Amino acid sequence: MADRHKILLLDDDQDLLDLYREMLSQLSLSPEVHTASSGARAMALLESEPFNVLISDLKMPKMDGLQVLTLVRKKFPNLRTVVMSAVTDEQFRARAYALGIDLYLEKPQSAKELSFFVECIESLLDKEVSGGFRGVQSKSLMDLIQIECLSQNSSVLKITNGVLEGRIWIQSGDVIDAEAEDLTGEAAFQKIAGWKTGSFETLPADPSRPRRIMSSYQGLLLETAQAMDEAESGKNSAVSTNGEAPGEKNPLIELGRIPDLEFAVPAQMDSGKSLGQWGIENPDQVSAWCADTFKKCNEMGERFQWGDLKSFEGTGTQRHMSILPHEQTLLCVGFKKTLSREQVRESMKKALSKWIS
Amino acid sequence: MPLPTGTFTVDRFGKLITSTVSQSFPEKYVLEIGEAVIAIFRQAMEAEVPLTEITLTFASLKITARELRGGAIVFLSPLGLGGS
Question: DSSP assignment, residue A2?
Answer without folding.
Answer: -
